[in-house]
Amino acid sequence: MSQDRPPRRLRLARLPSESKPGRPVPQAVSTQLIERLLSAGANQAFEWGLEELLRELPGVEQAFLWVRDGQNRFSLQAFRGVAQAALEGIEAVVESSLKTAYLGSPEGWLGGKAHLDHEEHFLYRVFSALPFRLQAPAHEPAVNLTLPLVASRQVWAVLHLYAPARSLGQAEVDWVSQYMAGVAPILREVYLREAAERQSLWLSAINALFRVSHEQPLELGLQDALEEATRLSGAEGARLITFEGHAIRTIAQAGWGSGLPVEAAITRQLGERLRGGQQVGIPRYDLYPAHRPELVEAGLRSLFILPILRHSREAGALLLFSTQQHWLPDAQTQELLSDMAAAIGVVRVEWTLRRELAWAAYTDPLTGLGNRRAFERDLEKLTHRANGRVVVLVLLDLDGFKAINDTYGHIHADHVLVRLGGVLRSRARAGDRAYRLGGDEFALIIEGSSTLNPLRTAERYRALLEEIRVSDSTFLKVSLGYAVYPTDVSDIQNLWRIADDQMYKDKALRKGRTPLFTQGQEQFIQINTPLFRLANRLAQALKMGPEEQQVLQASCYLLQMALGEIESSPDVQMPDGLLREAARVLMFVQSHWDGRDQSLGWSGESIPRAARVLQVARQFTAAVQPVEGRAARSVEEALEDIAKEARQRFDPVVVEALLSIRSFLSEDSAA
């Protein structure tokens, strides 16, 4: 210290003392004080220890007790004679700073020897700058008493007293040493006990995170861990985030700030530091140069961020924050938070691997649908629910799939299955589940209310799959059967058996069907109506195959009979299979052309092309016919009206085909 200037002294408001001057100094620590300290928590014990010391030494103006809370960091655990607000900015210090401020010998530091000096205030020697304003210096000399407290050959705490020189002499130094020799082991025992308890709570929280069941959503386990981290660290809120490119996504949150975009506090520079594995502490976020005003306005004041590195391509972070200024976790808590962050990273990696293994165990690798194991598991779960809902099991089998393999090869056949899986995954009803049982056999599990129409739902799926093209002129064909639990059966085995029986009956009918009009008979059968003629012409324009044209003609025939426009003809003999398919087409005539049906929760499903042709043909033939209260519209007027509603009401492809046969329409209308 320079000899040409007086020493600086720290003069802060002194707290009142209850002791009387001249009171005799006791020579031993009372049993009452020992019991009191042992029954308290660490913070309270430190406070009481200083309180008793100052009661016996009324001349001491300030007292500070620094306690090791990390490998080589000390935090201020108790103090007297200084206002709380004045010390808010003081953070933990490294041991070397305290050792330098001690001014005694290195042997004295490790030996726990008290040192009395007349130099500047101890805090000036510890900190290069203090976060509070000093009052005018005292008019009398002051002294510092610094006492390292040693245990297991290590300094675990440092006591500093500041007093006028007349109040703190060698006799008082000896008493302080004797007093602390009796009190310090008790304080250390209380502190270590509490630290062990805190560590045990943290380890319990970390172990609970590792025990998260794979059946429980990971987010719930992470939220529980965040709630524990918030409580144990003394923070008010926490967030778990992950970096996705330049974006930040919140995975879980707890405590204060729900709905507040706290993750916006992470600037690009902070993000780079976190990705590099650095932790960040911001004790005064409102003074941080890159702070977000809306977060400060909402109350955010302190922020502590720990990186979580899963692997080289992914990184995340654990955020803890408070509405109090200068809140940061102590060194021990930071170490435990680091363990928690590492555990979160491990659990997320393990969860990802477990999910991938589960996906592989329960997923068909070719189609991406559930496999047979997943089907059996889900079917058993659903049928064991007693919730008043029904479960529809639909079994599907691809007709002639062996011929596809033989004709086009296995690679092409696999591509057909891949497209089928994509259709079912992307266009199935919400909640419906699709599975590949093996080869060309598939299943659907459909859960719904008792008002669910199983036939309509199953046929919608058949229509959806039969839109898949195998070649330029061939589409996929599907046989199906279904059964309803508990309406049809009360156990899984019979549910499966009935659905399987129905599917094979359907396949037999489809294999045995005959054309509606056998070759050589077409010219003798005349269903000479505008709708029938227009439907046939549209089928030709759309290049529909023979079987699809037969279904369309049968559908026209049934529709016009149902409307009373024609009578049944004994010359028209339809086999059961064709009759069934024609009836299925009529189920969709009133549906939206792309399958949207909000009442059933269905969106974007294809319906049979024959039904889409009938929708357009009926609209046109009705428009060009006069009805009561409306004159017949011309061909061009009818076409214009239908063209306006393409995509909204009608399939645009069918509308385009209608517009392409204008000359036929004009001739047919004139005739």
UniProtKB/TrEMBL annotation:
Source organism of the structure: Meiothermus hypogaeus NBRC 106114
Name of the molecule in the record: GGDEF domain-containing protein
Every GGDEF domain range: 389-519
GO cellular component, one term: plasma membrane
Pfam families on file: GAF (PF01590), GGDEF (PF00990), HD_5 (PF13487)
GO MF annotation terms: diguanylate cyclase activity
Record-level GO BP terms: cell adhesion involved in single-species biofilm formation; negative regulation of bacterial-type flagellum-dependent cell motility
SUPFAM superfamilies the record matches: GAF domain-like, Nucleotide cyclase
Region (Disordered): 1-26
InterPro entries: Diguanylate_Cyclase (IPR050469), GAF (IPR003018), GAF-like_dom_sf (IPR029016), GGDEF_dom (IPR000160), HD_GYP_dom (IPR037522), Nucleotide_cyclase (IPR029787), Rev_trsase/Diguanyl_cyclase (IPR043128)
Stretches assigned to the HD-GYP domain: 469-671
PROSITE patterns attached to this UniProt entry: GGDEF, HD_GYP
